[in-house]
Amino acid sequence: MSGQDNNPILATRQGHPVTDNQSLRSVGERGPATLENYQFIEKITHFDRERIPERVVHARGTGAYGYFEATGKIGDEPATKYTRARVLTEAGKRTQVFVRFSTVIGSKDSPETARDPRGFAVKFYTVDGNWDLVGNNLRIFFIRDAIKFPDMIHAFKPDPVTNRQEPWRFYDFVQHHPESLHMVTWVKSPWGIPAGYRNMEGSSVNTYKLVNAEGVAHLAKFSWVPKQGVKNLTSQQAAEIQAKDVGHATKDLYEAIERGDHPEWTFCVQLMEDGPHDELDFDPLDDTKRWPEDKFPLLPIGRMVLDRNPDNVHAETEQSAFGTGVLVDGIDFSDDKMLQGRTLSYSDTQRYRVGANYLQLPVNAPKGTKARTNQQGGEMAYYVDQAGANKHVNYEPSSQGGLTEAPRPGKDYHQWVEGHLGRYQTTRTRDDYAQAGARYRSFEDWEREDLIANLAEDMRACPETIALRMVWHFWHCDPDYGTRVAQAAGIDLEKAKALPPLPGKPAPGQDRPGPTYSSGRREEPKGARPGRQAAE
């Protein structure tokens, strides 16, 4: 069976034709993803098992222990106004943390000078159990729907035939996803090569929710700001370092901690009232977009200090396991589709990579509380985390001394969910080019020069069709941006500008048309529904 241009039809391992490989099924455009996303679950769970035992992504990394100290405030207001998470509300309280920094695409022994986003994963061992905050150093990502994650990583990884990272594969993927232009602009600038782990920012990337004792929620994005300052490398500087050392960032962090020069970050949060925020040109759940800091300022909520190196890299750093679903009460999920997909994928990866009992390893086990689950068996179990008064009872509920449920810490957070079940792409696409252009204009001259040089080198390694389309994209982000890339790479700018818009994509600067349904009519607006609601 063949489709457009006689290309073979994409099909699942069950042989089912794939008619939509772009979007999860969700309840409405912004609603939660559904469990019967069979195509996605089959796709992502197979992707999670593609490498053993090395991580599929974030294989090269290093870690350190330290502590987080909360201010008890969010900005100038009591943190309890927004959240009941005790790790954030108890002023002066220190919570032990383990942090793993990493590159994304390269293998375990790849150079740390790679042009690549940097992973920034923090495990908080709180009094209410573990909280994992897993993100990167650039606050955004290439895609906004988790069903595209395996495709993206395949395109960025080495060619399955040549075993080399080929620029044309990267840009062949990017040219079909204008939302990626923002991240490309960051990664191909000096910000794509941090000077070291101590001198880079961190971010949740995904949108979460903070929930207070009354059950009221606010959308939240978390960020780490290094007190050592941000430092990045040009391509030439990175090449000079790589000629002498492929693990310079690991060495820098290790030696700094050993000599007592403990790196520190300010922990900040951006807040937004829960809801769709139609006044914005982007969806706040879209992780290819930054929240403008002039509208949503970075509010300090604490600090983190790293002061101890692991005793054993394999036992601690390499077997450390993080997951976006590891939250504590007072911090909750949003309907960010990347967050929803990562929450399944990350923990599934750890069970496959480390084993069914990966949470029993000391680096992953909670320290501020004790695991009591009634779960038993599995590969390499070395204790049973069931501790009821009656050891014969490994189920719940029971009247014979088994485990019991904990009391509720506050009012439940209730979110109204309503919509047509289907596959949706966001209709708010006008900022796909705008934020990338704004970032280009915000760079210093030397950063723009390095960005243009890096892109021009890549364009010269791409087929003309891909290079022309990428110049078309860059020109729509900012005319100077596209013009300079074309000139540096020897590409015909006028030929690139004459290209038609991408088939099936909205024109640059425009929103995607909304969905239609079997009646042929657009969805009629329902009555006003609360975005958040406390339990009665």
UniProtKB/TrEMBL annotation:
Residues 1-29, 496-536 are annotated as: Disordered. It is an enzyme of class 1 (oxidoreductase). One of its GO terms (biological process) is hydrogen peroxide catabolic process. Residues 11-404 form the Catalase core domain. GO terms for cellular component: cytoplasm. InterPro entries: Catalase, Catalase_AS, Catalase_clade1/3, Catalase_core, Catalase_immune_responsive, Catalase_sf. Belongs to the catalase family. PANTHER family: CATALASE, CATALASE-2. This is Catalase.
